[in-house]
């Protein structure tokens, strides 16, 4: 989940009702009115950017009485073309992983369990299984595309500290790169977030970056040489240049400063041209930035829909196409909306 929708304390108040957690990620006290991020010196001015309106595809979920909300996250296309999503706040017994037929506009629940709050999903290039980050359990689980054979791939502390695993990205070899939002719901002075690499064969974790302000979204650049990391608590997207073997961060700097107003940045994705698709918690919009930090486009739901939708937490572009789909949630329920991407979808566009 990236803390986006998954992160809100409101979500976690709902989860607390299930005895799971007090606050997932920092949405507590957040006014969820639609607020468009302003532009600054790193972005194009409002007159230069292209504003797009997304089209509703299908409703995926309704607000759960047990948790008082629903939060759809982690869109990723499977090998058969189905769009898989997770419902972060689904209670036990309700589907926590769902498969959406975007053409037929149908939804099928394929997996649930008793305790997990899944915040992201992505298919591994190594074994073809669907990997899910469990924010409250501090683990990574995998299932088949049919929702069967659940396995725990990783669990436990990292360097002696518990984790709040949010978003996930795979490199070409199948190693996992995960945002750990530890410290997200603590005092602003306690900056404890991390980026963790988990070996595909041994599940051994290695901390690549630490003392980060609640990292949420994580995507490889189009050439797999670096990571774009969305820092939820500071509304900036950092650029982390990696070593050739991707076991170290060699350079890092703030790449895009985002003026989000009352909204905060959530998950992200990257297209073939290197453009960054940044999702938001606090408004049902996606902002598209060039690799140089220029704001190229904004994508929002229709005005008539916006009142009952408070977040667009994640986005996936179908590989080989410009068909983009964003997960949108709020008091009206959880939805998938579509729009035309600026560039072609690749692995870095598909899940996390």
Describe this structure in words.
The model is unreliable at 1-47 (pLDDT under 50). The protein contains three helices and 25 strands. The radius of gyration is 18 Å and the shape is globular. Helix content is 5%, strand content 44%.
Proportion of residues in helical segments: under 10%
How much strand?
35-45%
Summing up helix and strand content along with how strands pair, one would put the structural category as mainly beta
**If classified by CATH, what would the architecture be?**
6 Propeller
Taken together, the total number of domains comes to: 1
CATH third-tier fold name:
Neuraminidase
What is the CATH C-level name?
Answer: Mainly Beta
Give the overall shape, derived from the CA principal axes.
Answer: globular
Number of helix segments?
Answer: 3
Largest sheet: 9 strands, mixed
What is the mean pLDDT? 88
Order of helices and strands: HHEEEEEEEEEEEEEEEEEEEEEEHEEE
**What Rg, in angstroms, do the CA atoms define?**
18 Å
Index terms:
disordered N terminus; Neuraminidase; single chain; four-stranded antiparallel beta sheet; 3 helices; nine-stranded mixed beta sheet; 44% strand; mainly beta; 352 residues
What's the SSE blueprint?
Elements: H1 3-6, H2 9-16, E1 50-53, E2 55-61, E3 72-77, E4 83-87, E5 97-101, E6 106-111, E7 118-123, E8 130-134, E9 139-143, E10 151-155, E11 165-170, E12 176-180, E13 193-198, E14 205-212, E15 215-220, E16 226-231, E17 236-242, E18 249-257, E19 264-270, E20 276-281, E21 285-289, E22 295-300, H3 303-306, E23 311-317, E24 323-330, E25 333-340
Parallel strand pairs: 1-22
Antiparallel strand pairs: 2-25, 3-4, 4-5, 5-6, 7-8, 8-9, 9-10, 11-12, 12-13, 13-14, 15-16, 16-17, 17-18, 19-20, 20-21, 20-23, 21-22, 23-24, 24-25
């Amino acid at each position: 989940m990236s803390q986006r929708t998954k992160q809100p304390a409101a979500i976690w108040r709902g989860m607390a009702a299930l005895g799971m957690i007090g606050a997932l990620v920092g949405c507590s006290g957040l006014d969820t009115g639609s607020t468009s991020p302003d532009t600054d010196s790193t972005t194009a001015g409002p007159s230069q950017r292209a504003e797009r309106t997304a089209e509703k595809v299908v409703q995926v979920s309704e607000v759960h009485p047990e948790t008082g909300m629903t939060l759809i996250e982690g869109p990723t296309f499977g090998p058969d073309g189905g769009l898989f999503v997770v419902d972060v706040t689904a209670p036990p017994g309700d589907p926590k992983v769902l498969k959406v037929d975007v053409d037929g506009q149908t939804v099928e629940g394929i997996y649930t369990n008793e305790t997990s709050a899944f915040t992201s999903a992505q298919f591994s290039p190594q074994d073809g299984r669907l990997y899910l980050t469990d924010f409250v359990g501090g683990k990574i689980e995998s299932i088949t595309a049919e929702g069967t054979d659940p396995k725990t791939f990783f669990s436990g502390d990292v360097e002696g500290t518990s984790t709040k695993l949010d978003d996930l990205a795979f490199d070409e070899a199948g190693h996992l790169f995960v945002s750990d939002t530890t410290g997200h719901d603590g005092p602003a002075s306690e900056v404890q977030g991390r980026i963790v690499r988990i070996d595909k064969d041994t599940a051994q974790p290695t901390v690549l970056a630490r003392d980060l302000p609640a990292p949420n979204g994580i995507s490889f650049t189009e050439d797999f040489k670096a990571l774009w990391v969305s820092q939820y608590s500071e509304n900036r997207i950092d650029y982390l240049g990696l070593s050739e073997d991707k076991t170290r961060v060699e350079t890092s700097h703030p790449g895009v400063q985002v003026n989000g107003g009352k909204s905060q940045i959530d998950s992200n994705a990257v297209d073939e041209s290197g453009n960054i698709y940044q999702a938001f918690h606090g408004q049902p919009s996606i902002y598209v930035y060039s690799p140089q930090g220029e704001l190229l486009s904004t994508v929002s739901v229709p005005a008539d829909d916006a009142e009952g939708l408070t977040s667009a937490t994640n986005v996936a572009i179908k590989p080989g196409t410009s068909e983009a789909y964003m997960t949108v949630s709020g008091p009206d329920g959880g939805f998938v909306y579509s729009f035309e991407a600026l560039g072609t979808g690749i692995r870095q566009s598909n899940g996390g």
